[in-house]
Amino acid sequence: MGEACRRRHGPGAMDTDCISGLPDELLHDILLRLESVRAAARTSVLSRRWRHVWAHLPKLVFDGNDTNSGSAAPPPPPDLFLDSIDGALRAYSAPTLNELVISLPDGGPAIPARRVESWLGFASRHLVRSLNLYVPGWLSTRDWETEAEELVLPTCDRAQDISLYIRSRWRLRIRLAGAFTALTNLTIHGGIMEAHLLESLMCSQCPRLKDLSLRVTLVTESDISLRSNSLETLRFCVDDIRRCQVEIVAPKMEKLFVYKFYASKARISAPKLAKLVWKGNPDAFGSRIEFADASRHLRVLKVTEISSPLMQRFDKVDKLRLDCVNISKEIQAYESFVNDTNNLPKCETLLVYLNRNDHGFAPCMMHLLRKCNSVTNFTVEIYCVESSNKKKPYCPLSCPCRLPESCKAVDITLDSLEVVAIDLDEESCEVVEFVKQLSQCNATTLEKVVINCFNESVNERFCAKVRAACRPNIKVEFIVYGRDGRRVCL
């Protein structure tokens, strides 16, 4: 190999190792595979020339937890890690940078905002295309006990993707004079902002923005208007808007995710809206949500708390998911569940995540099928472990769920139902009763009932009971998932 090097490089090649003779592009490609600036810097022991090659890498990754360094050695102490970031950025030689990733170690000491601001300034000066900054504790309640600090986000002309996870008490400022002309994806989680800065950022400073994820708090309660002609996806979680009005105007928006939305009034203009995920109770302001010109047909609607006014806004949903359904033992809770689900939109796929149910399982599910009789696929996930094995529900004896007509199935016609799937953690006699009632429905197209068991203790006797409760022409499948991920069909 040494002879080959001498022939390739000529006289004097004995003073240069073969690695040093590789072109910079190949060295960069090798170092980028290490996914860590720390690991890349350690390669300098292989070659004298490698000592400075990492300083021209198109991608810099600083991982405080050292998950990608490939070393068995523990990650450096937090203070030393922060110093290494500062030193590496000072030593960086290339005029531009494609990607900068800084993830501070979990459990480290609090870092001042001004230090992070210097890293953002580096990203701006080097025309970074992708910036990902993670400061742990961005959701910590302890942050609100600390003094507020100001963090300025400079404009990044070439940036296409920016993700900021910052401390809750940092006051994020954005210069109104500049623009993020290439930015298509923006995530800001943590921090407090002024409403007018947030409006300016979305309305005028990011003309190509397609995906926006916000989880911030307003400095003071204020009405807010977000307008964008380019936005396609919005994840919206803004605190301190309880007595405020919110306006969202996005003609191209197809996906909207709303979290803990408690504004006094909201107007949403999104004529192309196809997917809506609403986490929280929209009935906190009820009919004051206005979908100005959205279609009455959605591809996906997912709600974590059932809201009759919200669901009545749509006539048809291809996939409807009722998440975290909680029905406590009081009669009023069962009656509220029935009333809130009396006018569900027509859907092809219905998924129910049953987090708590102190009433009869079969009456609740039969009610949903009666109201969604056009459903093709019906899936229910049962996670109410505390009462799943009780022969009787927890609710009072006078509860309507105990009346015979609550489980009456002969009057239910399910012309489209093909598959019913039930996910459970343990055996349940109530599941057997539901399958029995389901078999009595007029469901000629029902082909299969699938029971997914996430507990290896499910036995053959339970399987036999379920199969006996089904009509002979309905195929029953039991799939048991073990702790090691194995999948066994019974």
TrEMBL record:
Domain named F-box: residues: 19-59
Q: Which InterPro entries match?
A: F-box-like_dom_sf, F-box_AtFBL13-like, F-box_dom, FBL15-like, LRR_FXL15/At3g58940/PEG3-like
Q: Where does the F-box/LRR-repeat protein 15/At3g58940/PEG3-like LRR domain lie?
A: 117-274
Coiled-coil annotation reads none
Q: Which Pfam families match?
A: F-box, LRR_At5g56370
Q: Output the superkingdom of the source species.
A: Eukaryota
PANTHER family for the chain: OS07G0550432 PROTEIN, OS10G0396666 PROTEIN
Q: What is this protein called?
A: F-box domain-containing protein
Q: Which organism is it from?
A: Urochloa decumbens
Tell me the classification of the organism that encodes this protein.
Eukaryota, Viridiplantae, Streptophyta, Embryophyta, Tracheophyta
